[in-house]
Amino acid sequence: MTNYRTPTAETYDALDRAFNHFNGELFQHRLPACLITLQRKRGARGYFWAEQFQHREDGDRTHEIAMNPESMGRTVPEVLSTLVHEMTHLEQQEFGQPGKGGFHNREWVGLMERIGLIPTATGELGGPQTGRKVTHVIEEGGLFEQSCRRLLDSSYALPWFTEKAESAASAKKKDLSKVKFQCPCCDAKAWAKLGSNLMCGECSEHMVGEE
User: Which of 66, 85, 163, 166 registers the highest number of CB atoms within 10 A of its CB?
Assistant: First the structure.
């Protein structure tokens, strides 16, 4: 078979191509190269970890951006928005002041909004924008959406993904009358009925319930 590409090559080459595309269009080629990995991490679609890899010969270190394959069954723009979310952490690591212990601070919020990704701890517009666990919404007509459209129009593909199998325990948990709520800032936990509106007494932040 000619021109055969392995699933490994297709996946990592596509992620590397997307990184380079967005680095140019959204970050003015300022971001250093990093090592993109696929890692299953519960509750995270991706993560950034500074200086996690070291070159065996010269000792140089590089940052890691991990993508959770169990979240890659979403649309390609949604998956790539996670990549750019983590690239923004890389930008802050290199040129800003990252929050301690993975805290998403106001500086990071500004970097995200500049490129058309709106931070939210709830997954909905208007949710808390800072905290330890923060996702985002793609701004309609924003810079990311425009840049992503140009990438997809250039015959871009990200064909491989996996889906997380729901365990019997998880299915049973969803049937319970109470679910766990967690503060996005201090990780305090509480249990209440699904749909309850809880506030953290320490941080005055809305607590986020498990789906």
Answer: 85
Contact (CB, 8 A) for 28 and 90: no
Strands of the chain, DSSP E: 35-38, 46-54, 61-67, 117-120, 135-138, 178-182, 189-193, 208-209
Amino acid of residue 192: A
CB 117, CB 85: distance < 8 Å: yes
Return d(Cα 196, Cα 177) in angstroms, integer: 11
Taking the CB of residue 166, how many other CB atoms lie within 10 A of it?
9
Rg (CA), the chain: 18
Q: Which residues contact 139 (CB under 8 A, 6 or more apart)?
A: 113, 116, 117, 118, 145
Strands 117-120 and 61-67: unpaired
Cα gap 88→46, rounded to integer Å: 12
